[in-house]
Every structure is written in C-alpha cells, then in structure tokens.
Amino acid sequence: MAAAVMRTTRSSSSWQMQVQWCLVFCWVVLLLLVLAVHGKETMEKKSSSGASTDVTDGLEVYMVLVSGQPVVAYKGGLSDLNATAQLFTRRWKSRHRTRDYLVKKYRAYLTKKQDELLESFFKTHRRPYTKLYSYHHIVNGFAVELTAEEAELLGKESSVMQVEKSYRVQKATVHTPEYLGLPEGIWAQEGGFLCAGEDIVIGLVDTGIDPTHPSFSATGQSPYRPLRSYRGKCEVAPEFPLGSCNGKIVGAQHFAAAASKDGMFNASLYFASPLDGDGHGSHTASTAAGNHGVPVLVNGVFYGNASGMAPRARIAVYKALYRIIGGFMPDVVAACDQAVADGVDVLSLSLAPNSPPPGSISTFLNILDVALLNAVKANVLVVQAAGNGGPHEQTVTSFSPWIISVGAGVDDRSYPNTIVLSDKTVLPGTLLAPPTKGPIFYDLILANDAVQGEGNPLYSPSDCQVPSIFNKPLVQGKLLICIFSFNFVFGGASMQQVVTTLEALGAAGLVMVVESDSAGSMFTPIPLTIPGIVLVDAMHSEALLTYYSNRTVKDATGKPVQFGAQARIGGGQIATYSGQGQQVALFSSRGPDMKDFNFNQADVLKPNILAPGYLIWGAWTPIGIDSPNYIGQRWAMMSGTSMATPHVAGLAALLKEKYPLWSPAALASALVTTADLEDSRGIPLQAQQISGSSAPSLQPATPFDMGGGALNINAAANPGIIFDAGEADYVAFLCSAEGATREQIFASTGGMCPSLLGRSTDLNTPSITLACLNGTQILFRTVTNVANNIETYTITWTSPTDVAVAIAPVTFTVGGAGEQQSQQITFTLRATGISTVSSFGHVTFVGNLGHQIHIPISVTNKNLE
C-alpha cells in the first residue's frame, strides 16, 4: 500500500498536534486586561496655578518609559515596597487578581514617581502639562504632550529610559511582512512590494488552489510577462476553467494516481483537477506569494490587509494532497518531479510522512528525500515543514541536509477579550467575536440548567450542539454558558454548531468555559458572528461558574427557579501586538535528527530555521472543509509548521531573485547563519514547553528547537560569507553515513562515492552536529566570500558543556567574491564517563566591514570510554 502523507497543519485529530499553546498569549491578555481596567484612571496634571492647558502648535504626544519595574514584573528592590511587591507578584502569577489592594498600592507608588518627575520637569519649563495616560502594569511610564525640544530634554533625565513619538497604526492580518521587516527591508531593495519576487516561480505541493481568490488575481496588477524558464501546464476542468492560470498562477496540475489505486480517491468529492477542495493549499500559496494589500473579511468583519512574502512571485500548483484522505507518497514524489521538470525555483512542501517508509533504513535515502536531493541538483531550493510533533524530542519529519526544514514560531499578535460580571469582576479570555450590545448586563444561564429534552447521545448538553434539547424561552436574550470539552477536539463538536444553537435559541451571546486546563490549552481563537468569549484558563472558568452558582436559586430537585448572574462581553476582534520576539510553538517538532528509522541520531541539525506559524491568516476556499470553523469563508486563521513553511519559501524566493546564481546551499546558508538568536531587547529566544496549566512554560530555545534561529531576511540579503555545498558533497555525505552501500547510493543519486571516505560531519553545512563524540574529533568548514570587498573576519565561539573547542585560524581575510577560507575545528571532551545530555554552542564570524554570521553547535552522545 502506498505510504500516506499528512499535511503539517495543526490537525484536530492528533494529541501532539493539538496541544494548545495559544495560551502563551494569556499572560499578555491578562496584562492588557488590567491596563484596560485601570487605564480609565487617566488624569490631567495642571500647573500649580491650576490653569488649563491649551493645545498649542508644536505639541505632540510622546510615550515615555521610566526606570522601575511595572506591576507584573516587579520583584522588589525598594525597601518600603519590597515585601509588598514580592507578595503581589506571587498573587498575580497564581491568581490573576486585578483588584487586589497590593496592585493599587504599587501602582500608586509608580504614579507618584511619574508625577514627581513631570512636576519637576515642567516646573523648570514653567508651563502646565497634560498627562494622557499613566502606564503601570505592562510598562512603567506615561504619555504626555511635549514639544520636540522638550522630548529631547526629558530623554536626558536620569530616570527616563526611552522617549518615543506617537505614530499611526492600522489593522494588519498576515502581519508577518511588517513583523519580519519586509516593507523597509528587502522589499525596498527589490523595488517595493510591486516588484518583490518578480519572475521567481514557487512550486507548492499541496491541496491545490482556488483560482478565484483575490490573493491570486491578476486583475489590477501590473501585467505579468511571459516566463521562458517555466514550462509547466495548466489543467482545465469544469471546476478549474480555462483562464484559471492567469500569469500570477502559471501552472496547475493534480496527481492522484496512487490515491485512486488505493481506492481512496473519489473524483466527485476530491476534484480530479487542481481546484482546492480543502483550503490548505490556498492558504499556503497566499502566504508564500499572495497579492499585496488584499482585504481580509470574515463574517463581514475586516481583519486587515493580507500579503504574501513575495507578492510578485509566480505560483505553480501541484495538487497531491486531498481533503479528508491526505495524500500518498507516490503522488507527492510525482508532483515534486514534475515541478522540477517544469522549472520552479523554490519548492514548498507543507507535508510530512505519517509513518516511516516500509522497509526503509536510512532517512536520507527514502524516496522523497532522494527526489529532493535531485531537485537541489537541478538548482531548486527545497523548503519542508519540520512537523507538528513537538515539544517532544526527535519528532522532526524532515530529515536531509539538502532540505531547509522549518519550525513554527509564535509571533507577537493576539486577540484578547474580556467578560465583566455584575459584581465588577473582570475575567480575561479570547474569541474573535463582537461585544454584547450596549453597556447593559445580560442574564447568564448554564446550558445544563436550560435542558428540557433528550438530544444526540454523542454530545453532552453542555457542548451546546443540539438546539432542540433546550428551553428556548428560558435561553432567549441570555448569555448561554457552554463547556469546551475534549469533545470539541476529538469528538466532532464544533464552534460553528454552537453558533447555530445560540442563533436558533435567540441567545444574546456565548460564554464558554473549559473543563480543565488541558482542554483549554487546545482551544484556538476563531471568528464568530455572535458575541462570545472563551475562558481558556480553568481558574477563570471556575470563577465564573462559582459566581453563577452563588446567584442562581434552585429548588429541592435542583431545578433553577431564579437567575441572578449577569455579565457583559467585550469585543475580541481587535488584534494586539506585544512586540515580543518569536517563540518556538509548542507543537513545532524538535530535533535531534535521525539517520535511520530506528531513531539513531544523525550528524545533521534539524530543524534549520524558525518562521511564524501560529494563527496565520491566509486565503481559504468556501468549499474547504479542512477546518469546520471556516466553511463558506474566503479566509482562515490556521496554525502549524505548514503555515511556517511558505513564509520561508516566499522569503527564499526574494533571496533567489536577488542572487539568481547562488546554489540552494548558498541560499540556505544565508538564511540560517543570519537568523536571530535574540529578540529586540537582547533576550534569547524562548521555546514553549508543556506545563501544568493551560499556558505553556518557556525555556531558552536550543538549536534542536529552532535551528539557526528566527529567520531575518533583511540580514540574509547581505551575509558576507556563506557555506556552500553541491551534489558531490551530498553524495560524499551519504557515502560516509551508515545504512547504505555504494551501489544503493549510486542507484539513488547517480553519484560515485569517493575512494577515500570521510565522515558525515565533514559536510559543509551552516551548523555542526555531533551525534557521538569520542575523545577528540576534527572537522572542517569552508566559507565563501559573496561580497565584493576584501574583508577580515574574526572567529569567536561558545563551547558546549563538557567540550573544549579550538578553531584555526581565528582570523582570516577573504578577497573578492568567490574566494574561500577553510577552518579546522577541533572538539575535545573535557569530562570523563558517558553523557547523553545534549549540549550546545555557537561559532560567530565577525567581519571588519560589518558582516556577521553564526552557526550552531550541538553535541549529544559523549563517551571517553
């Protein structure tokens, strides 16, 4: 039977894929909540005379951050508040109390210090002032009207940390172009978004495409010129008519022979054409190369303007995956083969094997990886999803060093929401839903208290899936409390059916609580048409249920006779941005890589790079059923390494446009060696891990979590030096690796093993991975100058634990473009005994003209005996 292939979107049918880590934003949500609650206490400061401030020419609003920790971060340090602040911090983290007197006390202290600074400053300048906001909880500072001269002077005060002029903001959707710095970076270098990716063809092996989607329209775009280098064709079918390939879409074909032979393919259901009947393929295509500035409308709500990473790149579609059934490896390999034959420049694969290929031993010589090696031989850069098996170790499903394997990152966007109870308690949650109408409070009713009949035995009444079991007059006009249980993850319950229930009953809105933190960790925010909120934290859910119980009177039989609980729901359709660096998503697969399907470790680093892959808006097809929450929609917000992969594919296309003669290895090296290891504050990137609550814990990310780091395309556009490799190098790598004979390698690759075999660690990758270190090991890396200037580089490094590293030479000079320099790198164990604990380091190359790159080091098995 043909090997099945899965898409690497975060699937609702898998525990590992469904471990919900979206609550990484809960902390941010909470902070924003408190700021919203207390921000109303904004006050205007006047001069001692009490005169009001007139708005005068030259005054503009500035944000000022001052020394001292905000409420949520303060850990003590002032003698008069030390104990109080520490006590508050413990309470904040454990109970999220927003009205605790300790909050007020510390906030008042911060306000006092801010006002003292302002009073002193404006006393000197002899004018009244207006403080617009006082920030306490997530930052310590204020917003105030200043002239440019005053702003400069205020910035010189010893207690002032930062002064920043206010600027306009607008709603954004994919958001990652701005988050990754494309508009002012590589897009600008390539002539703006109207030119970015021009004439580069990205081949996507996926579920097809919806050619009618505005992300792929050629109307209103600059005319696309013919491509001489691309030879693909466009299939025509009743549902994929002539003209579907319009210049933006340059080719579209489908591959279903293996699926048909397996008896799984139904042409009327899955479409024997390039049409996307799922949604996944349209989503990935729009992320890689969708048109710029396309409005995202879901349920009539505008969520911003979408853009692909390379908005002028061309899209070549190779449909080999299908809704419900997934795909089959022969179809996938055929699609890859055709894509290379057609002349794509970049190949994007948001897919991975469900299980090891039958009879395979070497991961590098499975058919797909061999096919992809040959794609690289044809100068095609291959980008593949790393998989969604995280945070567990050795779960990557993209194996070979000639492939860029992509992990999923969480960017800085979230969609917070709140519910206010009648006793003024405010609870944070999430859901892309409108607020309840007006400032009034609405009665709450628990689903189980509104049941009047029997429904579908597959669902609990608290799932709110069957309208007929509820007493409509009792629910009408109230907020219905439902429970998000594992039935929504594994049992077929859906949020859209909840909406159907509420609309049928005339409910005013939805309040959904979770039965446990583990259930809450699996909820992903989705857009709804009715007012609603999901309290994803079990503690907040319990608080709401307790409030409801205390205000509901029941008779001796347990039947409610009087309802007294009331609430109103805020709006959750506005995104907030924290500015944080990427975090490795909880579900993103982790290394180390394996050289065979017995899980023996390889001398190869996987994943290679990190890119945004959580809550990504992208194109959808109205007939798509990949997610029931977006049936009938043209846009969907999805998570998975499937979503991260087209980010890298699109950005690689920009790099390919800039450097058309670079090899795939050179392009990959530029992407990996310039990736970010820290956020803008200099804090090391973090990786999400399973915790005991609905929110994941964080720990410093390792190369096994993120590879070289978070992709920084603007730095990749000018790396200075790169690590290059070609077909012969990869063949030598295969020959030195265990698990294959010379004959097998020649049959697979057409390459001859060298007479003198080296070691797999000698492959000139932009990383160093030692699966097993015994005593001392020497290996080599060679850099190639890709700049036009003579530059001198100095090498520094941090050594893995228990390992001494020596590099020679530590200083070298490279001349014009193409000149090379080799380094000898020696690893020596400094400890005795055996260790299987992975340890990590980095090698950094710093040029005197400003270029800087780095490569990660990882060592796992260490043995002196």
TrEMBL record:
Subtilisin-like protease fibronectin type-III domain: residues covered: 762-859
The keyword Glycoprotein belongs to this UniProt entry's keyword annotation: yes
Q: Which residues form the signal peptide?
A: 1-39
Name of protein:
Subtilisin-like protease
The alphabetical list of record keywords is: Glycoprotein, Hydrolase, Protease, Serine protease, Signal
Pfam families for this protein: fn3_6 (PF17766), Inhibitor_I9 (PF05922), Peptidase_S8 (PF00082)
User: What residues does the Inhibitor I9 domain cover?
Assistant: 111-170
Record localization: Secreted
The record lists the organism as Sphagnum jensenii
Question: Quick check: keyword Signal in the entry?
Answer: yes
